[in-house]
Design brief:
It comes from Steroidobacter gossypii. This is MSP1 EGF domain 1. Keywords: Signal. This protein is mostly beta strands. It has a domain of about 60 residues. The protein has 1 helix and 24 strands. The radius of gyration is 38 Å and the shape is elongated.
């Protein structure tokens, strides 16, 4: 009768030997085994097609990306089907890949039908870099109108806002139509943080329009 140890070793051999006999997975041409060892991936410059690796064809005026699995057109070119076509930059424009056309008009010019036309800037205005709107903005202290840029009428007890395109009332005054009227602060109250309203002092509470003892 065989000892238990010998029987156990024979049983393990039955289960282990088939896996050892299996040949390693065959790698297709231009492929490498993955780090996990459970599969394969194509080398740089190749892409997976069915069960093989096909070379990536990089057209003229293009380059292979760092990932190695796709290509991109050089600066100044745009992808058209399977090739790269040069971007036609009109006069008074420059290359800008963030735009759909691949170019953007210089400051002081606006795109119109594939060209860059000079912006007509009215008096008391300056050109803007914005791609939207008329291409100009009114100077500080002026506001836009159909006539161009007209002065902002700043009423008494007011000042121009930080943007310079409107006005704000001084602290202690509130806006009422086109004027600034004084905030009437009752007894036992003070201006709040906005400076355009009031709140009761500590130890008092609002009752109607007055501040009374708690």
């Amino acid at each position: 009768m065989r000892p238990p140890t010998a029987v156990l070793l024979m049983a393990l051999a039955v289960f282990v030997s088939p896996s050892l006999a299996e040949p390693p997975q065959t790698l297709p041409e231009n492929a490498t085994q993955t780090r996990s060892g459970t599969g394969w991936e194509c080398m740089t410059g190749f892409q997976r097609v069915a069960n093989g690796c096909s070379r990536i064809v990089v057209p003229a005026n293009a380059y292979l990306e760092a990932s190695g699995d796709r290509w991109r057109c050089n600066r100044g070119y745009r992808r058209t089907n399977d090739g790269c076509t040069a971007v036609k930059v009109p006069q008074h424009a420059y290359l800008d890949e963030s735009f759909g056309s691949g170019w953007r008009c210089e400051r002081g010019y606006r795109e119109a039908q594939g060209e860059c036309l000079a912006v007509e800037i009215p008096s008391n205005a300056h050109s803007s870099d914005s791609s939207y709107g008329p291409g100009w903005e009114c100077n500080r202290g002026y506001r836009s109108s159909q006539a161009g840029c007209i002065p902002i009428d700043v009423p008494e007890h007011a000042f121009l806002s930080r943007s310079g395109s409107t006005w704000e009332c001084e602290r202690g005054f509130r806006r009422e139509d086109s004027t600034c009227v004084a905030v009437q602060v009752p007894a036992n109250a003070h201006l709040d943080y906005s400076g355009q309203a009031w709140k009761c002092d500590r130890g008092f509470h609002l009752h109607g329009a007055a501040c009374v003892d708690d």
